[in-house]
């Protein structure tokens, strides 16, 4: 408000996002040395799928091993193919991690059922907890099947559920250049009972920044043949370190437990991207303030497309703001001279 050439805007945007669960396979195999190989239909693309799957494997087999941390170190996730894991499906839709985890948990339940009698028998003889290596060696000698496959299918009555979130963003635009700075963004997002808060926090932050790129920078052009001519980051502007809000706060909401969801967790991949709409709306408010000051005859309600690039912001603020400012100064000086 105090600056003529810098205008600020703030906006709060709530979101809901529906995700769909889908059938997913999982396979857990315990090798002779006690290590655990896990295969799932999903592919690790940076979303933390393998981290959550490893944790779920250690959790699922934890009943057999007194030291869950050592058990976690023995787990490795192998990238499956369409021969080792059929009906693997695709990776996407934000529910691959939780679906894969549930398939792995079911496979672990089968292994626990097979190994628990052996564990109880050994403990009855020794009167002490049985080391993992001893349990697996004894199971091998007893010809127990140490590999289990599961194909999890969601409850037909609970194939979809809603994710919730809200974001408040404050931006500052440069009326002369159209440049936008995100001063602060505060996000709250419902992850249910998070399987891994660190992973989910990264997912929320990353999705938001990706959304900022979608709403502000990532414009593209096509030629006469309809082909995209933006063939690299020199012309297609993805978010950079300067795009991230100067102050960025994210809070995960642990909503109530629900037995229908995988350990009461919720998706965290795509839904938070929509929270970046708060930046777009805040930019609109800043532009509205500029139009109110420089373009008296311009409507304060206007069309603002996505993405709202620097050039778009400059145009919406007014390409002639400097001329209008100089004209106002000249008019003021002339009026003062007349009065004198």
UniProtKB/TrEMBL annotation:
Domain Aldehyde oxidase/xanthine dehydrogenase second molybdopterin binding: from-to ranges: 5-245
Sequence intervals crossing the membrane: none
GO function term, MF aspect, one: oxidoreductase activity
Classification via InterPro entries: Ald_Oxase/xanthine_DH-like, AldOxase/xan_DH_MoCoBD2, AldOxase/xan_DH_Mopterin-bd_sf
Superkingdom field: Eukaryota
Pfam family for this entry, one: MoCoBD_2
Protein name, per record: Aldehyde oxidase/xanthine dehydrogenase second molybdopterin binding domain-containing protein
């Amino acid at each position: 408000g105090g600056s003529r050439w810098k205008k600020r805007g703030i906006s709060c945007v709530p979101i809901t996002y529906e995700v769909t669960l889908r059938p997913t396979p999982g396979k857990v195999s315990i090798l002779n040395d006690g290590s655990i190989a896990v295969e799932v239909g999903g592919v690790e693309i940076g979303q933390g799928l393998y981290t959550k799957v490893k944790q779920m494997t250690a959790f699922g087999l934890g009943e057999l091993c007194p030291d869950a941390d050592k058990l976690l170190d023995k787990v490795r996730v192998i990238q499956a193919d369409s021969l080792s894991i059929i009906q693997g499906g695709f990776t996407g839709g934000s529910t691959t991690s939780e679906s894969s985890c549930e398939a792995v948990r079911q496979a672990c339940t089968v292994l626990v059922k097979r190994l628990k009698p052996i564990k109880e028998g050994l403990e009855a003889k020794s009167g002490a907890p049985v080391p993992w290596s001893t349990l697996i060696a004894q199971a091998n000698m007893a010809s127990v099947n140490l590999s289990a496959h599961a194909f999890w299918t969601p409850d037909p009555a609970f194939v979809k559920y809603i994710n919730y979130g809200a974001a408040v963003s404050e931006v500052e635009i440069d009326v002369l250049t159209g440049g936008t700075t995100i001063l602060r963004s505060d996000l709250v997002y419902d992850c249910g009972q998070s399987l891994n808060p660190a992973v989910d926090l990264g997912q929320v932050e990353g999705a938001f920044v990706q959304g900022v790129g979608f709403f502000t920078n990532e414009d593209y052009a096509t030629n006469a043949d309809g082909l995209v001519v933006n063939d690299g980051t020199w012309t297609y502007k993805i978010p950079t370190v300067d795009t991230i809000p100067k102050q960025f706060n994210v809070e995960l909401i642990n909503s109530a437990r629900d037995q229908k969801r995988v350990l009461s967790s919720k998706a965290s991949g795509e839904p938070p991207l929509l929270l970046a709409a708060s930046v777009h709306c805040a930019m609109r408010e800043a532009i509205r303030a500029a139009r109110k000051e420089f373009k008296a005859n311009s409507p304060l309600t206007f069309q603002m497309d996505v993405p709202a690039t620097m050039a778009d912001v400059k145009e919406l603020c007014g390409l002639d703001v400097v001329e209008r400012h100089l004209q106002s100064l000249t008019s003021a000086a002339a009026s003062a001279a007349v009065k004198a």
